[in-house]
Design goal:
The complex is a heterodimer of chains A (286) and B (541). Chain A is α+β, with helices and mostly antiparallel strands and 286 residues long. Chain A has 7 helices and 12 strands. In chain A, the strands form 4 sheets. Chain A has a 5-stranded mixed beta sheet, sandwiched between helices. A 3-stranded antiparallel beta sheet of chain A has the order 10-11-12. The radius of gyration of chain B is 23 Å and the shape is globular. The chains are: A alpha+beta (286), B alpha/beta (541).
C-alpha cells in the first residue's frame, strides 16, 4: 500500500445493485459495489487486510443468472451484473447461516454476529437444547493470550494472519474435517511448543473474541473488564525504527491490551511480540 | 521460510517409505535439511506411504514429510487429519473397514468388534462389502468379497463401453487390448488433428458422466484456447457417490481404454501432463491403471504427454473437481469457490480439463464412429442380479429393473446420495438426462439403488444424513453446521421427540445448503432427504 497509486488506470465496470446502477473499477468485488451503493452487507470471515476465503457465507447475494447465491466478498464484478441484496432467498440464507452459527458457537463477544442475528430475526433456539456445539475448555498455555475455541466460527482469519497474508509463521492451521474441523497447532501441541512467535496478529483479526489477550481474559474473569471506562491512546512503538502505530487500550490507568490500526500504512493492523505485548514495563510501579 | 519442526524422528522404515516417494535427502551437515517447496504435491503420497508402512502416520513420519517437502507441520497436520483413511493414532497393522452404507445396509452389513465402519466402498454389487488394509513391508489392500457377480450383467449384444470386458479382455495386457481394437481411436485422433477431435466430441453431444452432465466438447474447447501454459488433464476417478461402482469396473477390467482416452483428450486440448486421481478404496484399479500407464508409455503411444496415478485417502468431497485439485496439490480437500472455473484456473492454477472415467471411456468410441449414446447404470439393493448395466440413453427404468430382477419395488434412489428417491409412479421414467430432469431427479453418477417392499427407508434417510455430516469438509457454515442440524432434526422425527415444525426446519436447512454452500456436496446434501420426505412421506408427521 503506497500513498500514490502507480498502476495504470483501471476500466470501470457498471452493474445494478438493488435496482440502482453502480460504477466501480474492474477487479472490485460485489461487496465493494454494495459499499459504493451505500448498502450494508453483513460479513464475518471477510477482513479488509486479508485475502477473502468466502467460507462464512453470510455476505451472499442473489446474482441474476446464477444457480446459487454468490459470496459478495470475493465475487468480482462484471459488466451488466444484476444483484439483489435483500431478496427473500438472500434473507433466508443469511438468517440460517446466523442461526447455524449462533446455535453451535458462543457468540457472546461477537458483537457483529449478534447484531446481524438480531437484524435477520435469527432464532437459533429452533434447533433445540441438544443441538451439537463446539463448546470446550479454554486453552491457557502461555502468559500472553488465551484461545477459547468455544467462540470460534472457523472464519480462517487467524490462519491467514499467521500464514502468507501477514506473519508467515504458519503455527496454526485448520485440522480435522466437517463439524470437527478446528484451528490447531501441529498435533494440537500447546502454543509454547509450536511455531507461534506471539505477534498476536491472530488476535487482531479474530471477530468473535475466541483469541484474547490474557490481560483482558483475566479482567473479564474477575468481572472487571469495562470498555466504558477505557480510553484508546495512539502512540508509536518505542522498540525499533519501523514506526508501528500502537493503540493502547487503557482502563483505570493500566494498559489492558494493544492494537494497531488496520488502515495504518506501516502495520495494516499487525505488530510483533514487543509492540503487542511488551507494555508491562510502562506500568511496573515497583 | 524457516520452519519450526517437530522433534520426533521417523523410524528407519518410515524414512525409507517416505524417501521412496520424495527421493533420498541430500547429504547435509545433519542439522538442517532444506526441503523443496515446489514438491508439496507429494505430501499426500508421502503420508500414504508412511501409513502403509507403519499402519499409521506417526509424529516422526509427519515431521519428516513436512521437513522434506518444506510444509509447515501445522499445515501438514491439517492435511493428515482431513483424510479418513489416515490414522494419527497408532493402531494395528491390519484394519478391516466395513461398509455400512446404503446397499450394504440393505444386505445386512454388520461391523465386527475392532473393525471400522466405512462409507460406501464402491463394491455395491457384491454387498455386504469390506476393505482390509494391511500395513508393513509388503503393504496391500484387499476388497472383500474378492469377486462379485458376472460383469456385465446384461445386454451383451448392444454393449459399447463394456464390449471388451464382455469379450473377456485381459486387463493387464496391452497386446490383448490391441487385439480388441485398442489404440485405433488414438491413431484416428492424430489423423483428425486436435481441432478435429474436439469437433467430433462436441458433435457427438457427449455430456459428463460424473454427475453434472456438462458438455465435454465445450470444456475441451475452453481449455484448448487458453493461452496460459501448461494445460493439465485430470481424470476424476474418485468415484465415491454411494451406490456408484462403474468407474471402478472400467478401471479394473479395461484400464488401457482409459489411458488411450486420456492420450486423445490431452492431444485435443494441448495438455502435456495428466493425473488419474483414484479413490484409496480401489486397490485393484490402482494396480491395473498403473500397469496400463506403464505399458502404454513403454510402447511409445503417449507421445509428448505423460500421466501419473494419484491416490486419495478417504474423502468423498475430493470427487468435487476443485477439492480434487487441492488434494493433488497437497492441501486439504477443500473446494474452491467458482468462478474462476477449472478451464481457466485449475490444477496448479493452470487451465485444466477434468473428466470422469466413464466420460473419457466414450471418447474412443466416438472417434471409432460408434455414435450410440449409452450409459452405465450401477444397480444394487433389493435385486436378484445386481451389477453394472450398459443401456442406451432413454431406456425405461422399468426395463432395467426387470433385467436386474427387482423384487416388488418400494422406491429407487436414482443418482446416489446426492440424487433423489422416486415415487412409485415415476418408476417408468426414461433413463435420459431430460427424462430424469422432468421427474425432478437426476441420473447423477448412474446409481439405481433399489429398495424393496420390506426395506427400511427411515434407516436409509438417516444413513444419508450421516454420510453428508461425515463427509462435509467443514469449510463453509451452511454445510458444516447444516448437515449436523439436518441429521439431528431427522433423528428427532424418527424418535417422535419433535421441536416445533421440523419439516419446515428441514426445508429451511435444505434451502441454505443448496443456495449458499460453496460446492456440490453441500448443495445436494439435502436432496435425497427432501425427496424421501416429499415423494414418499418418510419421516413426515
Amino acid at each position: 500500500m503506497t500513498a500514490v497509486s502507480i498502476s495504470a488506470p483501471r476500466r470501470v465496470v457498471e452493474l445494478t445493485v438493488d435496482g440502482t446502477p453502480v460504477r466501480v473499477t474492474e477487479g472490485s468485488t460485489i461487496l465493494d459495489a454494495c459499499k459504493r451503493a451505500g448498502i450494508e452487507t453483513p460479513t464475518l470471515c471477510y477482513g479488509d487486510t486479508l485475502t477473502p476465503v468466502n467460507v462464512c457465507r453470510v455476505c451472499v447475494v442473489e446474482l441474476e443468472g446464477a444457480r446459487t447465491l454468490v459470496p459478495s466478498c470475493s465475487r468480482k464484478v462484471e459488466d451488466g451484473m444484476v444483484v439483489h441484496t435483500d431478496s427473500p432467498r438472500v434473507r433466508t440464507s443469511r438468517k440460517l447461516v446466523l442461526e447455524l452459527l449462533a446455535s453451535s458457537v458462543d457468540l457472546s463477544l461477537a458483537d457483529d454476529a449478534r447484531r446481524y442475528a438480531a437484524d435477520y430475526d435469527a432464532h437459533p433456539e429452533r434447533f433445540g437444547p441438544d443441538a451439537a456445539t463446539v463448546a470446550q475448555d479454554v486453552k491457557i498455555d502461555n502468559d500472553l493470550y488465551v484461545r477459547d475455541y468455544s467462540k470460534c466460527i472457523l472464519c480462517y482469519r487467524c490462519v491467514e494472519a499467521c500464514g502468507v497474508d501477514h506473519q508467515n509463521t504458519f503455527a496454526i492451521h485448520v485440522a480435522g474435517r466437517g463439524f470437527g474441523a478446528h484451528i490447531s497447532t501441529e498435533l494440537d501441541v500447546p502454543l509454547p511448543d509450536s511455531a507461534c512467535v506471539y505477534c498476536g496478529n491472530c488476535i487482531a483479526v479474530c471477530p468473535t473474541g475466541a483469541l484474547m489477550f490474557k490481560s483482558e481474559y483475566d479482567l473479564r474473569q474477575a468481572g472487571a473488564w469495562d470498555e466504558s471506562r477505557q480510553t484508546e491512546v495512539r502512540t508509536v512503538c518505542p522498540y525499533c525504527g519501523v514506526g508501528c502505530n500502537l493503540e493502547l487500550h487503557v482502563q483505570d490507568g493500566d494498559i489492558v491490551k494493544v492494537t494497531s490500526p488496520d488502515d495504518h500504512d506501516v502495520t495494516r493492523g499487525n505488530l510483533c511480540i514487543k509492540g503487542r505485548f511488551g507494555f508491562q514495563h510502562v506500568q511496573n510501579r515497583d | 521460510m524457516d520452519l519450526r519442526l517437530l522433534d520426533a524422528e521417523p523410524t528407519d522404515a518410515e524414512r525409507t517409505a517416505i524417501d521412496a516417494v520424495v527421493g533420498t535427502a541430500a547429504a547435509g551437515d545433519g542439522r538442517v535439511v532444506r526441503g523443496d517447496r515446489h514438491r508439496r504435491h507429494l505430501l499426500l503420497p508421502a503420508l500414504r506411504a508412511a501409513q502403509r508402512r507403519a499402519g499409521w502416520v506417526s509424529e516422526g513420519a509427519l515431521g519428516y514429510a513436512s521437513r522434506r517437502l518444506d510444509v509447515p507441520p501445522a499445515d501438514a497436520y491439517g492435511v493428515a487429519s482431513f483424510y479418513a483413511l489416515l490414522a494419527l493414532e497408532e493402531r494395528p497393522a491390519e484394519v478391516l473397514h466395513v461398509c455400512t452404507d446404503l446397499a450394504c445396509a440393505l444386505a445386512g452389513a454388520v461391523v465386527p468388534e475392532g473393525a471400522h465402519a466405512s462409507p460406501c466402498l464402491g463394491l455395491c454389487e457384491r454387498a455386504p462389502a469390506a476393505l482390509r488394509t494391511i500395513a508393513g513391508e509388503a503393504p496391500r489392500e484387499i476388497q472383500l468379497p474378492e469377486t462379485g457377480p458376472p460383469l456385465p450383467q446384461a445386454g451383451e449384444d448392444g454393449l459399447r463401453l463394456l464390449r471388451r470386458i464382455a469379450a473377456g479382455l485381459d486387463p493387464a495386457s496391452i497386446d490383448d487390448y490391441r487385439a480388441h481394437g485398442g489404440f485405433t481411436a488414438l491413431a484416428r485422433a492424430r489423423e483428425l488433428g486436435p481441432e478435429g477431435v474436439r469437433k467430433a466430441v462436441a458433435d457427438a453431444g457427449l455430456l459428463g458422466r460424473g454427475g453434472a452432465a456438462f458438455p465435454t466438447g465445450a470444456k475441451w474447447d475452453a481449455v484448448a484456447r487458453q493461452p496460459a501454459q501448461p494445460h493439465y488433464l485430470v481424470c476424476n476417478a474418485d468415484e465415491s457417490e454411494p451406490g456408484t461402482f462403474k468407474d471402478r469396473v472400467l478401471m479394473e477390467q479395461d484400464p488401457f481404454a482409459l489411458v488411450e482416452a486420456m492420450a486423445i483428450a490431452a492431444y485435443a486440448t494441448d495438455c502435456t501432463h495428466g493425473y488419474v486421481y483414484v479413490r484409496a478404496e480401489y486397490p485393484l484399479a490402482h494396480e491395473r491403471v498403473e500397469n496400463a500407464i506403464a505399458q502404454t508409455r513403454a510402447a511409445g503411444l503417449l507421445g509428448d504427454f505423460d500421466v501419473e496415478l494419484r491416490i486419495g485417502a478417504g474423502a468423498y468431497v475430493c470427487g468435487e473437481e476443485t477439492a480434487l485439485f487441492q488434494s493433488i496439490e497437497g492441501y486439504r480437500g477443500e473446494p474452491r469457490n467458482k468462478p474462476p472455473f477449472p478451464v481457466e484456473v485449475g490444477l496448479f492454477g493452470k487451465p485444466t480439463v477434468v473428466n470422469n472415467v466413464e466420460t473419457l471411456a466414450n471418447v474412443p468410441e466416438i472417434l471409432n464412429g460408434d455414435a450410440r449414446e449409452t450409459r452405465l447404470f450401477c444397480v444394487s439393493g433389493n435385486v436378484t442380479r445386481p451389477g453394472l448395466y450398459e443401456l442406451e440413453l432413454g431406456t425405461p427404468l422399468r426395463a432395467l429393473l426387470e433385467l436386474a430382477g427387482a423384487e416388488p419395488v418400494k422406491t429407487v434412489l436414482l443418482g446416489g446420495a446426492a440424487g433423489s428417491f422416486l415415487r412409485p409412479d415415476q418408476l417408468d421414467l426414461p433413463l435420459s438426462f431430460e427424462g430424469a430432469r422432468e421427474a425432478g431427479a437426476t441420473l447423477g453418477s448412474g446409481v439405481v439403488l433399489v429398495f424393496g417392499e420390506e426395506a427400511d427407508l427411515t434407516a436409509a434417510v438417516l444413513r444419508i444424513a450421516e454420510f453428508f455430516r461425515d463427509e462435509s469438509c467443514g469449510q463453509c457454515v451452511p454445510c458444516r453446521v447444516g448437515t449436523v442440524r439436518q441429521e439431528e432434526a431427522l433423528h428427532r422425527l424418527a424418535s417422535g421427540a419433535t421441536l416445533g415444525n421440523e419439516v419446515e426446519t428441514l426445508a429451511d436447512l435444505a434451502q441454505v445448503m443448496r443456495d449458499a454452500s460453496i460446492c456440490g456436496l453441500g448443495q445436494t446434501a439435502a436432496s435425497a432427504v427432501q425427496s424421501a420426505m416429499i415423494n414418499l412421506e418418510v419421516l413426515t408427521p
